[in-house]
Amino acid sequence: MNLTYFNIQRFCIHDGPGIRTTVFLKGCPLNCLWCHNPESKSRKTEMIYYTSKCTGCGRCIGFCDARSIVDGHIVYDRSKCTACGKCAGRCFASAVRVCGKTEDTSDILAEVKKDVPFYKTSGGGMTVSGGEPSMQADGVLELIRAAKESGISSAMETCGFGSPDFFREAAALGTLFLYDIKGVDREKHKVNTGVYPDRIHENLDMLISAGAEIIIRMPLIPGKNDSESDLSLLSDFLAARKDLIRYAEIMPYHELGRDKNAAVGREVYDPILPGKQFSHSWKDSLTGSGVEIRISGE
Ligand code: SF4
Ligand code: SF4
Q1: What is the mean pLDDT of the chain?
Q2: Which CATH class is domain 46-99?
Q3: pTM of this prediction?
Q4: What is the 3-state secondary structure (H, E, C) of the chain?
Q5: Distance (Å) from CA 269 to ligand 1 centroid
């Protein structure tokens, strides 16, 4: 079975316990204002074009109607681009590259297996991330199953917005869930992410009932989901599940997504303040929940 991914990153230390190999899949059902992996949103292969890196050499011109030179400047018309990748092969400046590759799960697992010696010494394994793994449910389950048969444990970074059957099956394979909770207030969640949180919260509680290992991740975005009332609702939400999750981790907003949004032709959401400076006050607000609160990267 095939999976479409945009990166297989080795030696990851923030995507679960130990040293991990993370498979970043294409496609996400949410539309978070602050997404720092905008190249994951579309399920399709697409082109990334960093105008800041482009030297204007013109080596990418002549393969199609999407790229042309107008008044001495490179013009890229995304609507005419088929993502064939010919231009990327000609660009020495790494200004343009293909984002998305479709491969059989056995080929992906072969790449993951290269890091097995590191899993053994660190307690790590494979992480499937995104995008949202549930968008490619069958392939992801096949990959996790094959990893397990090879003695590799799996974790999954998920927004929780997918079919309950998918999550149930992944849990039965012993998957550790790094489960995003982006807020409790329904209307705010809809504005911030494009969907109501009901299904996300129901899937979480289903996984808890199934005895799954869960780490909650909370992307907190200044001015979007970090008001006193947001934090109070979040604290109550955690408290109600306090002995049922390993710990909860604050994910402060960072600005890496800004340039990438422009590079994949999406609107740049600007400005959002970096969250690092607020993380300790957020932690103080959530500690009363009785759940261990960590801050990503600390
Ligand atoms: S990916 Fe192909 S179609 Fe798109 S701009 Fe490059 S050469 Fe043209
Ligand atoms: S080959 Fe690369 S650097 Fe040269 S014009 Fe095209 S995108 Fe720019």
Answers
A1: 93
A2: alpha beta
A3: 0.91
A4: CEEEEEEEEEEECCCCCCCEEEEEECCCCCCCCCCCCHHHCCCCCEEEECHHHCCCCCCCCCCCCCEEEECCEEEECHHHCCCCCHHHHHCCCCCEEEECEEEEHHHHHHHHHCCHHHHHHHCCEEEEECCCHHHHHHHHHHHHHHHHHCCCCEEEEECCCCCHHHHHHHHHCCCEEEEECCCCCHHHHHHHHCCCCHHHHHHHHHHHHCCCEEEEEEEECCCCCCCHHHHHHHHHHHHCCCCCCCEEEEEECCCCHHHHHHHCCCCCCCCCCCCHHHHHHHHHHHHCCCCCEEECCC
A5: 26
